[in-house]
Amino acid sequence: MKSNPSPKRILAINSLDARHGSTYRMRALTQLMDQAGFEVKYSEGKGSKLTRLLVAMYLSMGKYDLLFTQKFNPVTVAALVIAKLRGMPTVADWDDIDYSMHRNQLKALVSFWCEQIGPMWCDTITTHSNVIKKKMSRSNRAVHILHQGFDNDLFFRSEKTREKTRHSLGYTSEHFVVGHMCTFTPGGTIDLDLILNSFAAVQNGRARFLLIGGGRLHAQIQDKVNQLGLSDRLTITGLIPHEKIPDYLSSLDLSVVYMSDNEANRARVSFKVLESLAMGVPVMGKLVGESNMLFGPMIHNVAEENFARQIDNAADASLPQQGPDMSNFTWKKNLPVLTKILDQLLQ
């Protein structure tokens, strides 16, 4: 009797920790690989940058049939180079143009060169962004779209959860809760100053503000909140597990987002917009690029100078909490495409 062949082994290296939206995406794609029947060894960034680099290099010299990394930085590029020199098939999921988000010039330069060199060591690139796909159009690398998604087992509207979370945060039925979600990193807070300045200009006494997020810039952001006189009206959740984010989103009456028109934002598909809409929370703001193409018709578009006034208006006459059909944006929609990509590379 012929035994069934053992599953192909995939080494999935995520160079970042849980603070980053890219980590949510990498975890979701890894779960899809597992559902497709592959044997997945998943490594998530921990410790110092040097530790992450050494761990990635060590793992990439081990036993596996395919390397799947997340974006391009020194950690993932080192792993890709080692894998290719060993003759292994390689895939990188490129979800952000990182170099344009760094405020430190040295980090921006390193990121720029990693994003120039990294693709040369990949057999295939996956991305959620047609902007990034177009950027790679002149290369000889295969590029496939794996759409940004959400977990529909987590992100659904529950009045019971809404009431419980609002109570725990000290909100009553009289409060109009306005939220913004971001990671407290240079890239995640790229447009946060405008959001906070707009919150400070809101005059409606019912308005309360919730920042859903945390990270290494927490102290700096808290200082800004204090300077704007928002301490009594604004709560910062701190870094929370991704599975708890739906609880906090459920407490909102309005989710706000602002994307300045730059290369990084044009390539993004915003988690804060996608997950707010999945929870049935109205979204107000400005989108650009890929996010605008996908979600522009689903949100309440507002010019930068009108943010505070429109929040005041929404508090006076709350927007309907009724989102569009988001079923096409679940992670599971990517399963057939991802499985086909991996099967072809592993033949």
Keywords, please?
14 helices; Rossmann fold; six-stranded parallel beta sheet; alpha/beta; globular; about 350 residues; about 15% strand
Summarize the structure.
The protein is α/β, with parallel strands linked by helices and 347 residues long. It folds into 2 domains: 9-149 and 330-345, Glycogen Phosphorylase B (Rossmann fold); 159-328, Rossmann fold (3-Layer(aba) Sandwich).
Count of folded domains: 2
Instruction: Name the CATH architecture of the largest domain.
Output: 3-Layer(aba) Sandwich
CATH fold-level label of the largest domain:
Rossmann fold
Could you give the order of strands across the largest sheet? 2-1-3-4-5-6
Low-confidence stretches: none
Termini separation: 24 Å
DSSP, total strands: 12
The top-level CATH class of the largest domain is Alpha Beta
Mean pLDDT: 90
Order of helices and strands: EHEHEHEHEHEHEHEHEHEHHEHEHH
**Corresponding CATH superfamily of the largest domain:** Glycogen Phosphorylase B
Largest sheet: 6 strands, parallel
Helix content: 25-40%
Principal-axis shape equals globular
Strand proportion, as a percent range, falls in 15-25%
**Given the helix and strand composition, which structural class is it?**
alpha/beta
Q: Rg to the nearest angstrom?
A: 21 Å
